[in-house]
Amino acid sequence: MLELRRYSDFSLFKRDVLPFLEQHEGENNLPLGVIMNMKPEQKPLYMGTVNKDGKLALVLLQTHPRQLILSKSLPFATEEIEEIAKKLYESYPNIPGIIGEKWLATALAEKIAKLQHRRVHIQMKQRIYALKKVKRPASKRGVLRPAQMSDMEMLCQWFVRFCEDVKLPTSAEEAAQAVQGAIANQQIYVWTIDGEPVSMARWARPTKTNVTINWVYTPPEKRKNGYASDCVAALTQQLLDSGYKTASLYTDLDNPTSNKIYMKIGYEPVMDSMLLLFQKEENQ
């Protein structure tokens, strides 16, 4: 028996889902990190759980306007996924998209799209990696340092280009707000060669034992020099040294270079993920 429960109280939702999500911190780094770092003034667009035979089996969370996050779930049969889709559609008919484990996100999206009379658009094929120990440390040729306000203009440009690369374009205003916040919180770091910033990375969504690395970007004219690898390796080691047991990150599977880089550093695949959006049929 399946039960979909929609929450309106964030504190109650958080209490109910954290133990389930923490069983797989690496795979659930997105929903877990979002929940644990929510600001008091923020309110999720959707909070829900699916219980299977009275046992929590799936967590649903949306804070971003374009996608509903699916946690790592318990196994579901085909007919159960169809039932979840129907219940979810009744609870939230205008789901814009979903991001989650490949098998579940793909199957659920197909069912929801039919109910919405829309089509599924694959925005990105992703892989989640986790690391416990850095196997390939950063080289000695450069230095990792926290970004400073004097880097603001350059990093805003880099962030806009990064968002274009990952097919999630942003405006200059949104970039400025995001970068300014990351600098203020000492979350964004740059790898420098002879004092010149050549690559960036940010840590985000800290949980009890895990932290996520994202915003990894090197401008085109600086690529193929191993700067991103050095930047990520150095930042990862710094985070582990600060007390985190693991670090995690998402990659775009259509970018084999970055996947190879992270595996050489010591990141290991833990789950394939899909970002899927629902779009109007072309004849509508």
Comma- or semicolon-separated keywords:
single chain; 284 residues; alpha+beta; Aminopeptidase; 2 domains; twelve-stranded mixed beta sheet; 12 strands; 36% helix; globular
Description:
The structure is a single chain. This protein is α+β, with helices and mostly antiparallel strands and 284 residues long. It has 2 domains: 2-125 and 274-280, Aminopeptidase (3-Layer(aba) Sandwich), CATH 3.40.630; 134-265, Gcn5-related N-acetyltransferase (GNAT) (Aminopeptidase). Helices cover 36% and strands 31% of the residues. Strands 1-2-3-4-5-12-6-11-10-9-8-7 form a 12-stranded mixed sheet, with helices on both faces. Helix 7 (227-241) links the parallel strand 10 and strand 11 (246-252). Helix 3 packs across helix 4 and helix 5 (152-165) crosses helix 6 (172-184). The longest helix has 15 residues, at 102-116. The two termini are 36 Å apart. The relative contact order is 0.17. The mean pLDDT is 95.
